[in-house]
Amino acid sequence: MLKIGDFSKFSRVSIKTLRFYDEIGLLKPVSVDQFSGYRYYSAEQLPRLNRIIGFKNLGLSLDEISLLMTDNLPVDKVIEVLKAKQKESMNRLRQEEARLKKVEEWLKKVEKEGFMPEYDVNLKKIEEMQIASVRGTIPTYGDISRLYKELFSYLGRKRVQYAGPPMAVYHDCEYKEKDADVEAAIPVTGNIQGSDKVKIQLLPGVEQAAFVLHKGPYENFSRAYSALMTWVEANGYQICGPNREVYLKGPGQILKGNPQEYITEIQLPVKKE
């Protein structure tokens, strides 16, 4: 028999780890001195320890390793555990590849422009939501306040609780200098009765939306849209739905309505070309 120190040296596993494996029942010593408490191991236990270390290097948890080290474990159970780990590793690899791609994109931008980009474009899924909305044709985009005035007035009279920040959906397929088709909306919950002008409906979800956060006046949105469009084209996407603006912090939420403090999320539904 080997003292724990010698077994540790030959196996290249620390004494602390061997003691831990003993405590959890993963690798018990062949003998423990009842007076001194010294643990003794056998060279015949090295193959079991090597297998434990091998499974650990695969990224398996101690619970999974304990299961795989069970005597007479059916082969199909071993396959099941290993395939689950394979799938987990593949998912992690895809995440790392996506992260690497983002790093490369940022690196190219910084190298090309010589400074940090103003906007960071990301992708996300948007779930469908119930909204109260007023849709209309307005003379200019700045006149959307008319739609919100009508919307908020109606919801106020009905004492409706909002479920999220105000938003706008732009239904035109192009920029309009006048007569823009715009929908002012706000997320709501519950059974709410609409009117001729105010519609209660489900706003469809978006499987993939490219988005940026813009801080500052609405008049400066062109820079944010430029960053979005450049990213969409550079990454092989195409726009597949109306753009949306979510007013996370706007005139009604900022003290004295300072436009420099406005925060808006601009969203473009996209899909791969």
Which SSEs are present, and which pair or pack?
Blueprint: E1 2-3, H1 4-11, H2 15-23, E2 31-32, E3 39-41, H3 46-57, H4 62-68, H5 75-113, E4 122-126, E5 129-138, H6 144-157, E6 167-170, E7 180-187, E8 199-203, E9 206-215, H7 221-234, E10 237-239, E11 243-249, E12 263-272
Antiparallel strand pairs: 1-3, 2-3, 4-9, 5-7, 5-8, 6-7, 6-11, 9-12, 10-12, 11-12
How would you describe what is shown here?
- With 273 residues, the chain is α+β, with helices and mostly antiparallel strands.
- The protein has 3 domains: 2-68, Multidrug-efflux Transporter Regulator, Chain: A, Domain 2, CATH 1.10.1660; 74-116; 122-272, Alpha-Beta Barrel (Multidrug-efflux Transporter 1 Regulator Bmrr, Chain A).
- Helix content is 38%, strand content 25%.
- The strands form 2 sheets. Strands 4, 5, 6, 7, 8, 9, 10, 11 and 12 form a 9-stranded antiparallel sheet that branches. A 3-stranded antiparallel sheet has the order 1-3-2.
- The longest helix has 39 residues, at 75-113.
- The protein is elongated and about 90 Å long.
Largest sheet: 9 strands, antiparallel
Helix content estimate = 25-40%
In CATH, what is the homologous superfamily of the largest domain?
Answer: Regulatory factor, effector binding domain
**Mean pLDDT across all amino acids:** 89
